[in-house]
Amino acid sequence: AFRQLFPEEYRRDVRKYVNKVVSYVYPYVEITFPEYQVDGWFERSEAFISIERYLSTNSTDRAKRLKASVVKDCESVVLSMDDYEEVIDEFNGIRIWWTSSKKIPQQRALFSYRGDEELRYYRLTCKREHRDVITNVYLKHVLDEGKAIAVRTRKRKLYTNNKSENWHGYKRTVWSHIVFEHPSTFDTLAMDPKKKTEILNDLMTFRMSKDYYKKVGKSWKRGYLLYGPPGTGKSSMIAAMANLLEYDIYDLELTSVKDNTDLRKLLIETSSKSIIVIEDIDCSLDLTGQRKEKKKEEAVKEDKKDPVEKKAEKDEDKKKKGSEVTLSGLLNFIDGLWSACGSERLIVFTTNYVEKLDPALIRRGRMDKHIEMSYCCFETFKVLAKNYLDLESHELFETIGQMLGETKITPADVAESLMPKSDEENADICLNKLIKSLEDAKEEARLKAVEDARIKAEEEKNVKKEEDDEKIQESDAKIVNDDKEQVNDSKENGVKDA
Ligand SMILES: Nc1ncnc2c1ncn2[C@@H]1O[C@H](COP(=O)(O)OP(=O)(O)OP(=O)(O)O)[C@@H](O)[C@H]1O
Ligand SMILES: [Mg+2]
């Protein structure tokens, strides 16, 4: 009837008029949140996602029909209310109705990536007199709460950078990731309890200090340098940090970054609440003082080569190294202007040789806290014994403590001894295994010391011999010279005589 009464061209005007009349007498306000933004591509609207999360926790017991969806990367199953359901929420005594619904698009957008899918949306309805409270306070509450739920339920990720050459094309991603599930925590991490507490406090303070960093004009990040021999728990410490703070980890492999520009791109694509890790920083690049010295020597040599040969060699070098990232590029990465994009970030370097690193790289402000992870001491051992064997004390502890004082052994080796290999291996057997390996380590160290002393003595002997040889040569030369002079003298004399 509507169609017959009003021809096509009037219909829109009539609808507008009807809407106006209705809104005058209709005592409610409605707000709609579509799933996709009008100009959005694939990206679902953030507000929609937050509302979905919010309503899923607030509505699961109220809505009768629910819909399960698996959020991307199989992170978790989200239950949300099904289409055409309604739930009622209450906020400061105000009733709010939420309905979920969908529209089937009448005409397909020309370049729609989503095809003919229906357009889902949530609609909020409330009394008109509450409009201000709802738009100003309630909606913010819903969005914040939704975001917080997302953070609570999300799985954390471990990222690694893709090779620079593979950044092009349709799926241009610079980082790849998997779900981060390392079980290491500060409870399982064995180290001096005092040091551990200090680090824990440092991290917790960092997390709470958003306003402080703003006040002093620093970007909200902190650098840690972990150094020590292999197998002393550096990587375990990083995992424990991530688990404590619930941050993502970006494990940056410097050798597959082409140059400083790409390094910056990587930085921009990291998110807040994350730890950026560069492991074995001393091996990653030509960043060490000693190698620079070597370069100077090479440069002198290279000056003498012809240009064609030089270029070929350079290309070869590039292929081998695959990276032109420089020290200054890395310094900029850590605390240049770009490093302030994003916030709440830790940057962690690990190295086995702290003395090899350029001092500029590890000065305070860049690497704020230097943490030494060292060989197993008695305190460390006690934590490991508790974790691996459930032992607080044992008659063998004293012996072990004494031996640990005399011998260097890594926590990784201690852990290996303490781990029962079969059902028959009880605590006694494991502790004895440890004592045996401590004895072995001690013997090994003794032999090495003897060998070192022998080599040193030999070197000294060689040096001395060379010196002696030189002296002998010098004195020989002198004798020869003296003889010559004498001969000359006698010749002259002879001439004279003659
Ligand atoms: N301090 C520690 N507390 C608990 N476990 C440890 C500790 N140190 C080492 N381990 C054990 O030894 C293994 C190796 O440790 P980890 O990988 O953390 O060493 P690392 O210092 O990173 O060595 P590298 O320098 O070779 O990378 C870990 O899987 C862990 O089980
Ligand atoms: Mg490691």
TrEMBL record:
Residue ranges constituting the AAA+ ATPase domain according to the UniProt record: 220-377
Example of a GO biological process term: response to stress
SUPFAM superfamilies in the record: P-loop containing nucleoside triphosphate hydrolases
Required cofactor names: Mg(2+)
Gene3D superfamilies: 6.10.280.40, P-loop containing nucleotide triphosphate hydrolases
Highest rank taxon of the organism: Eukaryota
Keyword field contains Signal: yes
GO MF entry, a single one: ATP hydrolysis activity
Alphabetic keyword roster: ATP-binding, Hydrolase, Magnesium, Nucleotide-binding, Signal
CDD domains for the chain: RecA-like_BCS1
Region of interest called Disordered, as start-end residue ranges on this chain: 294-319, 456-498
Catalytic activity: ATP + H2O = ADP + phosphate + H(+)
Keyword ATP-binding appears in the UniProt entry: yes
Xref: SMART domains: AAA
Family: Belongs to the AAA ATPase family. BCS1 subfamily.
PANTHER family: BCS1 AAA-TYPE ATPASE
Protein's name in the database: AAA+ ATPase domain-containing protein
Species for this entry: Deinandra increscens subsp. villosa
